[in-house]
Amino acid sequence: MKMLFLGGDKRQLVVMNFFNNKDHEIDVVGYEQEKLPSGVFNKKLKDLDVSIYDVIFFPVNGVKEDGEITAEFSGEKIILDNDVLKNTKRDALIFTGILNNKVKDILTISNRGAVVLMEDKVVTQENSIPTVEGIIGDLINNTEYTINDSNILVFGYGNVGKPLVEKLEYLGAKVTVGVLSKSDYNALKEKKIKVFYTFDKKEMINNIKFNETIINTATSKVLDKEYLKYVSKNSYILDVASHPHGIDVDYANELGLNTKVWMGIPSAVAPKTAAKILTKKINSIIGGDYT
Q: What is the pTM of this model?
């Protein structure tokens, strides 16, 4: 089976090594600064014949709106055209971490489908563990106070938000959660965790002012110009959501707020664990034995 990796990070290295050891033929784009194992070949995007590949991998975090892909091991930007998949085999397997707008455009133009790894329930649940560990480590390194007894506001109560809130509570933080859904609201009330609806402007302003750490896990815009002006200059804001993020980062920077956007946390803090999760899922679809 012939495989193509378009960009990527440390997770893709582990995945490609696994399949390389299973005697698949592997080409990669964007790895010229990495020593590749025997049997893996670096290619230039302009020289690719995509029609020869049975499996194609996009980076886990998808494709940016301008077509740029994550290429951690390249010294140059790699930009994909919308028709990059146009000449692929009809039955080629295409994998992406997330299905953002740019990936949708590429798939629509080529009339192809894709396996979206981060929409798989098992993958997202297992992936949340290194993500939460990374967030907690980031708070320890980037704030001047302990998590214990800190006032922390978390937006979102999904795959990342839920285990994050549980860990923060366990570490003694005073956690408040902003949610949209009634089921999330009721679940948090039942656990006696402070919660409010993000569509309630008064509650939003009160909680933004009060909490010294704000963590966004929601993919929809939560902190825009209307609300960022209420954030204290002493607060720390961490946005871990995928594109287009939940915070207007440009405006936050304009206001001089201490803001960080951090994507691909599992790759940064536990690439081998994260890659093992992905490899298991990919291999189950391709049809091999996972060992």
A: 0.81
